[in-house]
Amino acid sequence: MIKRVSALVATTALAATMMLGAIAIPAQAAIRHIDGTVVSKNSENRSFRIRTQSGSQPRIKVTSSTKFQRLAGFGALHKGLAVEVDAKNTSNGLVAIQVETSGGGGADDGPNHT
Question: Mind listing the pLDDT tens digit for each residue in 24-33?
Answer without folding.
Answer: 545 554 789 9
